[in-house]
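Need the bound structure for iron/sulfur cluster, inputs here:
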Amino acid sequence: MSAMTKHVYLEARKCLRRGWFARNAPEAIATDEASQFHADEGVEVGLQARHLYPDGVAVEWIGLPGTLARTRQLMNDPNVNVIFEATFATDSYVTRADLLRRHELGWKIGEVKSSVAKPEVEDDLLDDLCYTVMAASRCGVNVTGASLLQINPAYRLGMPAEALFREADQTEAVNERLAEFSALWAAARDGTDSPGPPEATPCTACSDCPYYDDQCFGRDVDYSVRNLPRLQRPRLVGLLDAGILDKRNVAGEFLASLNERHQGIVQCVKSGMPYVSPKLRAELEAVRWPAYYLDFETVKTSLPLYPGVAPHAQVPTQFSVHRCSAPGVVDGHAEYLADPACDCRRHFAERLITELGAAGSIIVYSGFERRIIGELAANFPDLADALRAIQTRLFDLLPIVREHYYHPAFHGSFSIKTVLPALVPAMSYSSLAIADGDTAAVKFAKMARGCYGPEECAAIRRNLLTYCAQDTMAMVEVHRALFQEC
Ligand code: SF4
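Answer from helper R.:
Posting the output first, comments after.
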């Protein structure tokens, strides 16, 4: 039987069955390049925090008994005041504290997070910290303080290590929830230790449960009710309570209780035919031709890649523009891919202004491009007028699809990668070497950090250009196909 970890406990707190799967049938650990990069970033931020305490001592993992003994030894050494990765275990529970510092007559626990510090602390971060405090306390540690260390949004490359983190004392907030956490100690351990999973009971945690589709209510269901777009949690619980798992089984009072959009989706799935709103054509005809189909790629890292860039800031790196004189009639293509060695935001903005001409709709698929253009205008005041003029021409296809069209093959998703094969079966992303935005961003970040040789970089650049061009060509084709549907 595997140990009770923070992840298992926090899952069990939401739903015992969820905790059981986390403990007994953990999700496969993603090993793709993008997931590994994000995991490595978290490790790197943790290591950076160690620079705050040059005299601190790290507890290396040497198997549980040895690691526990080493932790005890360091805590008993009066010359050691700061311990990294102090490890505690009792009663099947295990925890490791990022930072353990001597504090008053006991110890202060610190959790290091790679997210940016915000004025309001997110609940899940407090939950993380509370778990560590609870488990360490149960192991006999006199915890006299608890805090979160997050990335300081004002940090810029070149600043000292102390400027990278913002620490916020959370002792009071943790103490407020500690009794509730402790009350679940035995139930979470025993409930996740049974030979089989506890019975499935509908609850609000079903809404974002990672086990829903493969291990629970969504298993072997073709058109799961959970993926009704933006379905409120209590409404999902009501449907599950009534045993309605598939959209095709929503009828009577349950159908009547859904909003108009959801009712349309249910009818569409039942009939197997797309739903087309009578307003779709008018919405599509609002485009002014020639139209420019525009897509951006960006890179975002916890520790900035370039001077003057904030942690986690989205730096635009790439765009593709397909110019069309009528639906589906392409008469030009332009693209841009930054040099990863330097911050190319200004060059990006200048090229964008040049390539988008002076008139005609600029078709995007989400509000992302509008936001990035606004940030560029704020960064480069001399380009702001031209960039704001671009913003006035933006035409977002996504809300039109969301409101006025539905295909059973969407399965609740309006992502261009789902919409494209449903509307244009001849096109898909499946054969691309880079097929999603996260991978594109990670490849770029790794080029900027010098992780690849010249030949690999050249191949990645080709693949990035192909991927971004596919996104705008997908928009061209989806737009054309939508015209044919109405
Ligand atoms: S889908 Fe719901 S009942 Fe099933 S494991 Fe997840 S949260 Fe628990």
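Comments: Residues 454-485 form the longest helix (32 residues). Residues 15, 17-18, 200-201, 203, 205-206, 209, 211-212, 216-217 surround iron/sulfur cluster (CB under 6 Å).
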